[in-house]
């Protein structure tokens, strides 16, 4: 696997001329629907490198925050600034978002990945080379000609992550990518995320699966009712959480 | 009842004997209706894609308008095209009246709103599914439209089929602008109308049966295509 990971690295240099995406500064971010403030004045500074896990109970605003960070939604108030990058669409081109339910084109696995690759300026040979590597990395080579939508949920999500990674994003945003998947699929997907991180991709992942957060987190952002109630290194979060709503039960597990 | 029995026998005989007059009428019917559906598809799909994807002031009104146009009365369309193409009309100099081209124009006007309206719904549904993913990937608008049309192709084929059904079965407009001239503008529906008025009900019904057979074959072909696509999850 490391060789595949290495093989995906070279063209990172193509974005060297662009400003850094970090630190990500979120200032007084608000997102309202009607009179309801679903994101309620978030301040956050996220640095490059670590795996940042956004957690919180249902309705806390985790997925909303991820969409706002990726520029899929326009904030009602406040500011999101990816490093020195002046425009959100410029930042977005250097990121990839994996949705909870994979949105795959009604085409083969290979055609889904080629569709994404054609959006960037690569020669045909480069595209095919990247495709081959990412399919190997995601263990999807044998499914390349299969229609993407007949695959299992876990395989579809792997295709979605492969499509995201084939573009070599600097930031990979994931919105509960393993919800309702079997343990083997969860493991395969987590391995893909870790592989992306090893090659230098910043990971921002939304989950409410505490065990997954333990496995993947370097730092945890805890949201409640649209507010950040805790932002701390994973070790501290799982041993001595600050937030009043988080406690450690009898089996030393963190419970929301 | 005797007419029905006679009609079935006659229809069978006409088909088996490959009657040249009948072949000519069938071919012209197909040429006119397929021509109209092709042109209407180009115009209608473009309108459907624009209205389905873009959000602009007055969009709701356009949707209501397109939906209303789906029920355009063929005779009224025929009359308007007749007035436009007649010698005294603004396009009289083209000398298109009583020609298959005039029939194609009339049917195109009838079919375009159907294709535009139904394809708008199909494309909008696909777009609502793909929108965030396309935005995330940074798909340019032209590529997005092409991808939506391609991915929705089987649904859009059914839409075109609805347009073809309307065109091939329509008589009011083509009889006005075509004139039902033998060997020139006589199509299935106008021939049926003529034979009925002449009192040859068996022949009229036989032609009707063949018309239904054509519509059925086209429908079956598209359904089969769609079924295959569904089975392999491309639809």
- Name of the top-level CATH class of chain A: Alpha Beta
Work out the largest interface and the residue count of each chain.
Answer: A-B, 23 and 17 residues
N-to-C SSE string of chain A, H for helix and E for strand: HEEEHEHEHHHEHEHEEHEE
User: What is the oligomer described by this structure?
Assistant: heterodimer
What string, H for helix and E for strand, traces the elements of chain B in order?
A: HHHHHHHHHH
Q: Radius of gyration of chain B in whole Å, from Cα? A: 20 Å
Compute the CA-based radius of gyration of chain A.
18 Å
Instruction: Count every helix of chain B, treating DSSP H or I runs of 4 or more residues as helices.
Output: 10
Q: Termini separation of chain A (Å)?
A: 36 Å
CATH superfamily of chain A: P-loop containing nucleotide triphosphate hydrolases
Flag low-confidence runs of chain A: 1-16
Per CATH, which architecture of chain A?
Answer: 3-Layer(aba) Sandwich
- Main β sheet profile of chain A: 6 strands, mixed
Distance between the termini of chain B: 44 Å
Structural class of chain B, please? mainly alpha
* CATH structural fold name of chain B: MetI-like fold
Brief sketch in words of this structure:
By secondary structure, chain A is of the alpha/beta class.
């Amino acid at each position: 696997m490391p060789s595949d990971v290495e093989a995906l690295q070279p063209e990172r240099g193509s974005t060297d001329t662009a400003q850094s995406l970090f630190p990500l500064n979120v200032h007084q971010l608000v997102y309202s629907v009607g009179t309801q403030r679903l994101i309620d004045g978030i301040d956050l500074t996220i640095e490059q490198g670590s795996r940042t896990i956004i957690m919180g109970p249902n309705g806390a605003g985790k997925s909303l925050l991820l969409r706002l960070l990726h520029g899929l939604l326009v904030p009602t108030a406040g500011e999101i600034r990816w490093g020195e990058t002046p425009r959100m669409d410029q930042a977005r081109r250097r990121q990839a978002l994996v949705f909870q339910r994979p949105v795959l084109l009604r085409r083969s696995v290979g055609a889904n990945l080629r569709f994404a690759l054609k959006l960037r300026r690569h020669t045909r040979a480069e595209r095919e080379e990247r495709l081959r590597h990412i399919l190997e990395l995601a263990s999807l080579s044998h499914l390349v000609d299969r229609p993407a939508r007949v695959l299992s949920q876990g395989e579809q999500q792997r295709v979605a992550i492969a499509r995201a990674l084939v573009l070599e994003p600097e930031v990979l945003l994931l919105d509960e990518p393993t919800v309702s998947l079997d343990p083997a699929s969860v493991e395969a997907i987590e391995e893909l995320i870790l592989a992306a991180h090893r090659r230098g991709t910043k990971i921002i992942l939304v989950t409410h699966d505490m065990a997954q957060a333990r496995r993947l987190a370097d730092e945890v952002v805890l949201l409640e009712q649209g507010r950040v109630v805790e932002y701390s290194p994973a070790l501290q979060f799982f041993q001595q959480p600050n937030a009043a709503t988080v406690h450690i039960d009898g089996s030393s597990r963190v419970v929301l | 009842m005797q007419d029905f029995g006679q009609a079935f026998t006659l229809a069978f005989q006409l088909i088996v004997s490959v009657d040249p007059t009948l072949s000519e009428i069938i071919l012209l019917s197909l040429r006119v209706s397929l021509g109209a559906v092709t042109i209407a598809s180009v115009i209608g799909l473009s309108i459907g894609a624009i209205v389905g994807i873009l959000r602009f002031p007055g969009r709701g009104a356009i949707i209501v308008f397109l939906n209303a146009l789906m029920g355009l009365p063929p005779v009224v369309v025929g009359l308007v095209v007749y007035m436009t193409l007649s010698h005294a009309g603004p396009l009289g100099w083209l000398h298109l009246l009583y020609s298959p081209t005039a029939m194609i124009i009339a049917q195109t006007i009838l079919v375009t709103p159907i294709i535009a309206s139904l394809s708008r719904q199909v494309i909008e549904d696909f777009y609502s599914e793909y929108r965030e993913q396309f935005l995330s990937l940074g798909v340019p608008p032209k590529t997005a439209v092409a991808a939506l049309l391609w991915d929705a192709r089987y649904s859009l084929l059914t839409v075109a089929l609805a347009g073809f059904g309307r065109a091939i079965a329509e008589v009011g407009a083509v009889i006005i602008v075509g004139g039902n001239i033998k060997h020139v503008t006589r199509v299935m529906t106008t021939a049926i109308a003529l034979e009925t008025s002449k009192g040859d009900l068996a022949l009229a019904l036989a032609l009707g049966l063949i018309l239904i057979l054509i519509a059925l074959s086209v429908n079956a072909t598209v359904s089969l295509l769609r079924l295959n696509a569904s089975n392999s999850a491309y639809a």
